[in-house]
Amino acid sequence: MLELRNLHKSYEGTPLLRGISFSVAAGETVCLLGPSGSGKSTLLRIIAGLESPEKGSVSWEGQDLASVPAHRRGFGLVFQDYALFPHLNVVENVAFGLKMADLPPQEIKARTTSALEKVNLTKFKDRSVTDLSGGEQQRVALARALAPNPHLLMFDEPLGALDRNLREQLMAELRRILHATHVPAIYVTHDQAEAFTLADRLLLLHDGEIIRSGTPQEVWNKPGSAWAARFLDAGNVIEGLVRANTGTLQVETSVGVFELNCGQPHKVGEKLVLLVRPQGVRRVSQGNLSGVVADAVFFQDRFKVTLDNGLFFYLPEAPRIGEGIFLEISSQAVQCLS
């Protein structure tokens, strides 16, 4: 098991990591999700042994790794730019690290064959890597990381250079491979679709801190903060004041009054931040929210309707742009944020 305790790191006086602690269990895929500058890649480099923390520790199976160099940690790295050797063919790229470790030729052959089978590239083994597509090159990079039988796999934005279709294909492929090999993994990304597809557990990073952790479903259902809700595009984030709390909370905002069951002892007059989900609303003749339609865009099997007040909702049919509408929003679609 990998364990991080209270990691701190600064760059030119600016804190990059502020007390990061988490663990990765056997066979678990943990995704570090956050915007650029949140500390994700720095954290990965510290785990890999390419940088040292100013404070805190990284350990594997109880052993502190501070004195263990990167090449002896037994961790595999997969980067966005593949980092393949263009003068070597596919099988030579996969075998490179094994040859550097001076393994016997028969073991090298067995491991490279197994790694290429796992990523479905056996028939490409003699191809030049420069003749492969971006998705195929990334699978070669993955096979190279798998060949040494790593304790842990680490991915740094590995699909960022691919188009959407290839990215979706490789997400499914990665998920299959990680589940089949049971190798624990840390996956760094700013892309929510990748994180929610691949993660067993998701860590949301902001300004060098983990501000939310849980399964993808837990994080989506309860983002926990206004920043997290906005970053995940989970819905409309609205400020308001408590108007009444008689079991059901009534919150008055600039766009209307919302009722919800919060479960917290909020006082009348207290300021709150609400998350109003865009799904499950109804268009009605009179409702608790109104606005003028600024835009309506077809989105899969529904329309994303944006009002002139900046709020957006999903409706089964598109209203006319410029039309005034009323919406009924149920209490189940509204929650408090910290």
Give keywords.
single chain, 338 residues, alpha+beta, 2 domains, five-stranded antiparallel β-sheet
The CATH class designation of the largest domain is: Alpha Beta
Termini Cα gap? 32 Å
CATH fold node name of the largest domain:
Rossmann fold
Please state how the strands of the largest beta sheet are arranged side by side: 6-7-8-3-9-10
Number of separate domains: 2
Order of helix and strand elements from N to C terminus: EEEHEEEHHHEHEHEEHHEEEEEEEEEE
SS strand fraction: 35-45%
What's the helix count?
8
Determine Rg (CA atoms, Å).
24 Å
Sheet of most strands: 6 strands, mixed
Mean pLDDT: 91
Strand-pairing-aware structural class: alpha+beta
Provide an overview of this structure.
The protein is elongated and about 75 Å long. The protein has helices at 40-48, 90-100, 105-118, 134-146, 164-181, 192-198, 216-221, 226-232, and strands spanning 2-11, 14-24, 29-33, 55-60, 63-64, 75-79, 152-156, 185-189, 201-206, 209-214, 236-246, 248-253, 256-260, 271-276, 282-284, 289-299, 302-307, 312-315, 324-328, 334-337. It folds into 2 domains: 2-227, 3-Layer(aba) Sandwich (Rossmann fold); 235-337, no CATH class. A 6-stranded mixed beta sheet has the order 6-7-8-3-9-10, sandwiched between helices. A 5-stranded antiparallel beta sheet has the order 13-12-11-14-20. With 338 residues, the chain is an alpha+beta fold.
